Amino acid sequence: GLGVHSEKSSLRRGDVTAQIALQPALKFNGGGHINHSIFWTNLSPNGGGEPKGELLEAIKRDFGSFAKFKEKLTAVSVGVQGSGWGWLGFNKEQGRLQIAACSNQDPLQGTTGLIPLLGIDVWEHAYYLQYKNVRPDYLKAIWNVINWENVTARFTACSK
């Protein structure tokens, strides 16, 4: 696959496909305010790549590798029936990261007790125009705009 550097430079060169694809999600004003307020801060045109430091270590510890984590969160998100969310959450009792899916706009913490770190919106509106319901393609693109600094800040705040 493409290395992190080529992904980053293609975004800088103006490959804004991923950003355009997320526009409807960013404009969506319906339910799920909590989910969306997390989703917005999770994304950045300068995002992508891998997290660093403690978060990366925790991902490796709890999922085996970053690649396995990415695969699992993608699979869970692809598998959501209809509309919903794929989440990376923090289980405070067990002190570990967990992946979960929520249907519709159910908030992660209220539903599972996990603290939300990274949410992927798989409501059809989030990608329909760009990807015509090809959810796996949308999920591939979203990894290029994930703002790991934001996700790391959330992780640090709840794992103290």
Structure report:
This protein is of the alpha+beta class and 160 residues long. It has one domain (1-159): minor pseudopilin epsh fold. The chain has nine helices and three strands; from the N terminus they run αααααββαβααα. Strands 2-1-3 form a three-stranded antiparallel β-sheet. α2 packs antiparallel against α7. The longest helix has 13 residues, at 66-78. The model is unreliable at 1-16 and 24-31 (pLDDT under 50).
Q: What is the name of the CATH topology?
A: minor pseudopilin epsh fold
Helix/strand class: alpha+beta
Number of helical segments with 4 or more residues: 9
Roughly how much helix do the residues carry, as a percent range?
40-55%
The main β sheet shows up as: 3 strands, antiparallel
Name of the top-level CATH class: Alpha Beta
- What is the typical, i.e. mean, pLDDT? 78
Number of domains: 1
Give the CA-CA distance, first to last residue: 35 Å
Q: Which stretches of 5+ consecutive residues score pLDDT under 50?
A: 1-16, 24-31
Main sheet: which strands, in order across? 2-1-3
- Report the count of strand segments: 3
Shape: globular
Cα-atom radius of gyration: 15 Å
